[in-house]
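call fold(seq) -> tokens
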Amino acid sequence: MVTSLEQAFRDEWGRVLATLIGFLGDFELAEEATQEAFAIAAERWPREGTPDNPGAWLTTTARNRAINRIHRDRTLLAKTRLLEVPQAVEDTVDETTFPDERLELIFTCCHPALATDAQVALTLRTLGGLTTTEIARAFLVPEATMAQRLVRAKHKIRAAGIPFRVPPDHLLPDRQAAVLAVVYLIFNEGFAGRNELAAEALRLGRALGELMPDEPEVHGLLALMLLHDSRRAARFRDGERVLYADQDRSLWDGAEIAEGRALLDRALAQHGGGPYVIQAAIASLHADEPRDFREIAALYAELGRQTGSPVVELNRAVAVAEADGPDAGLAIIDGLDLDEYRYLHSTRGELLRRLGRMDDARAAYRRALELSPDDADRRFLERKLAELAT
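ret:
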């Protein structure tokens, strides 16, 4: 059962921290003050009851902790202007006193001056509230490595003078694309088997939808993640990956599919036609039975035109193979330069199997197995090879 404090942490961590960073201009001091506010809440709320407005209580308490810290540490001369700010009374300030600065925070975390791994880590730490230990575990790196990554990112923001703001209009499209890419990267890491990361990405996607309601690509991304996540319970069986066509549809989450399709409709109504909207439309078609592979192939063609990605072309080849036969799909695949991509070889192996070219199929599956570090994928490929041996 989720307690009121746990719910407040999920709902308010990013909002409180963003407000404090906007107020203080200091990531580390803001984070310390926010942590203190939640620690105080953990002590008081069980005894005194949850405040009527938890977010305002936490924000006010965190701001007071920060001001007290500055009073105690008078060597922070750059922040002496804050000493003139009158101390607020806890749990009495209306929430409208504090602007929601999460949008500024996520654009700061995803600034192009930061490396992608730093953008991901900082977004999860600040917007998602994950601990350094949790982020390190999710990305399979030592905790010390992740701690250094976070510290370097915060120092880079300070040293480079990265502004805490939404970018000006002429920079917004590229920067928005970076923000969405970071959230989708987090989701894909989670979708590979770390469910807590997928849940965080969905939460971040919902926050972006709230903060940028007029951006169709934002709704397209959330729709895409929901439609993929709806199949989570059916994607593995006995530790082995299960392909779309073999999944038990009764395990799919109908509520997530309905929500994803509603968001897709909203994006389309806003004249959305970018990569995330197209991918969401493809995912929605995959939820149909039977699937319209010609329409799916046409959407992949448009996505490929926009992105120039050979991986998108590989996915188009799969749809073409389903619509027009394995020969047609194989003709596309054999023109792709993706020799180090395991899914090209596993896909090629399946099409060769359908064509009765068993020796070539075995060679393709063996190449995919050589390239696969994932245990679930390896078990799937080993089974395919065993079936070809019989």
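The beta strands are 236-237, 240-241.
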